[in-house]
Amino acid sequence: MDSPLVVPELAAGETFLLRPWRLADAVVVEEASTDPYIPLITTVPSRYSAEEGAAFIRRQWSRSIDRVGYSFAIADAGSGRAVGQIGLWPGAYGRATVGYWVTASVRGRGVAAAALLAVSAWGLERLRIPRLELHVEPWNEPSWKTAERAGFVREGLLRGWQEIGGERRDMYVYSKLPGDLT
């Protein structure tokens, strides 16, 4: 059997840290579960309970155990409090997908951009992944602006790309290549 992937700790700017999930991070899962959008596009439970919060965290651990990818808690570097999630999911043909969310209480502080810069530099430089991709709904301007601030390039619109909330939705596709590192 292959050994599990190792989820490291990565600095994300001066004030945030990417790290493995801890059971104590259930409080951020609870906050995310009240968001109208996060549970639609992630495995965050839409109805929170302590059991569901722990199950979410265990699923994040299983990603590396099963060699599916790297799921990081985005945490405040000073307090250690988790404020969101970012994942890097290696796939076929030298590509990996990146996804992220942050709770409403920290939006607008550059948290997602700092996390995306850190995980993309790590994936491109350390893991030597030739191409990172992410998908964002066109209406989600804060998320696609985050991608652009982190050096991702919009390549186009994928019509009917993904089912969300029971309907097919269009997605912008963004990429970042080793030559795009800033």
Automatic annotation (TrEMBL):
One of its GO terms (cellular component) is cytoplasm. One of its GO terms (molecular function) is protein-N-terminal-alanine acetyltransferase activity. Keywords: Transferase. Residues 16-179 form the N-acetyltransferase domain. It comes from the Bacteria. This is GNAT family N-acetyltransferase. It comes from Nonomuraea zeae.
